[in-house]
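Thread: Newbie trying to understand structure tokens

Hi all, I'm a second-year student working on a class project, and my supervisor (Dr. K.) asked me to get a predicted structure for one chain before our next meeting. I've only ever worked with sequences, so writing a 3D structure as a token string is new to me. If someone could post the tokens and maybe explain what I'm looking at, I'd be very grateful. Here's the chain:
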Amino acid sequence: MDDDQAVLLSRRRLLRAGALAVASAALPSTSAFASSRPAGAIARAPARRFSRKGYRRSRFEPHVGTPIKLRPHGGAAVRARLAAVEDVPNVKGLAGASDAYVLRFRGSSAQPLAEGIVGVRHPRFGTLQLYISPLAADGPNQDYLAVINRRIPHRAKAVRGR
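---
Reply by user tm_fold:
Sure, no problem. This is what the structure looks like when written as tokens:
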């Protein structure tokens, strides 16, 4: 190889390439809602994807009472509904906040889900991954909570600017 063609691999480039390789190997190859339809099946348009800006309370409030699907990674989908969009309990300063709230899902207690990350699919607000926590079963119903918090305290903004 000529000196003109030689490429020096700096330590920074080596670390960046290694980190990229590790991150890409760690990512799952399929999502929680991966398609399992036959090759000849008609493909539907994928659900809309939303950026972080899409996690506002107003995205979910119009759909309270509508059906959704909850699917843990590698598990079967469970039918549920969006039962409520609630304020964060015991924090008066977040009452009515559009970027810090709790989603309550209600499903059947016959198919309980474990605490963890699940795929949440709704025909209107799309598909997203949320961390849910189950509550105690209430007869035939099982409630799950997902806390959304996109708030950055004012102090953190000031520290970041230093």
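A couple of things are worth pointing out once you decode it. The first strand starts at residue 67 and ends at 72. The radius of gyration is 21 Å. Feel free to ask follow-ups in this thread.
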